[in-house]
């Protein structure tokens, strides 16, 4: 999907939390990518993944700024 060396997983959780965090990150100018294996599997015609196990990724260069956003808003 994307180069492993460029992005780092920031958070794994429910879609609601992911969308909330994406909004906060966007306000700080941080681009994020969502990986939802369950939704991808359903769209491809086969099951897979775990519900509410959606992953949020940011560039490694943004990780230091993004981590406190998660910690301060999803404690």
Task: Give structural attributes.
single chain; 75 residues; alpha+beta; Alpha-Beta Plaits; 3-stranded antiparallel beta sheet; 43% helix; 23% strand
Description:
The chain is an alpha+beta fold and 75 residues long. It has a single domain, classed as Alpha-Beta Plaits. It has three helices and three strands. It has helices at residues 15-27, 37-44, 63-73; strands at 7-13, 32-35, 54-59. A three-stranded antiparallel β-sheet has the order 1-3-2. The protein is globular, with a radius of gyration of 13 Å. It starts with 6 loop residues before the first strand and ends with a helix.
Q: Distance N terminus to C terminus?
A: 30 Å
Order of helices and strands: EHEHEH
CATH topology: Alpha-Beta Plaits
Radius of gyration: 13 Å
Number of individual domains: 1
The tally of helices reads 3
Major β-sheet annotation: 3 strands, antiparallel
Q: What is the highest CATH level, the class?
A: Alpha Beta
Organism: Aquimarina muelleri
InterPro entries: DUF2007 (IPR018551), N-reg_PII-like_a/b (IPR011322)
Domain DUF2007: 10-72
Protein name: DUF2007 domain-containing protein
């Amino acid at each position: 999907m994307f180069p492993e060396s460029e992005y780092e997983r920031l958070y794994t959780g429910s879609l609601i939390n992911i969308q909330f965090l994406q909004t906060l990150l966007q306000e700080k100018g941080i681009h994020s990518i969502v990986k939802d294996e369950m939704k991808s599997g359903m769209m491809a015609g086969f099951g897979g993944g775990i519900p509410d196990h959606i992953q949020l990724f940011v560039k490694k260069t943004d990780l230091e700024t993004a981590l406190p956003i998660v910690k301060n808003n999803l404690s």
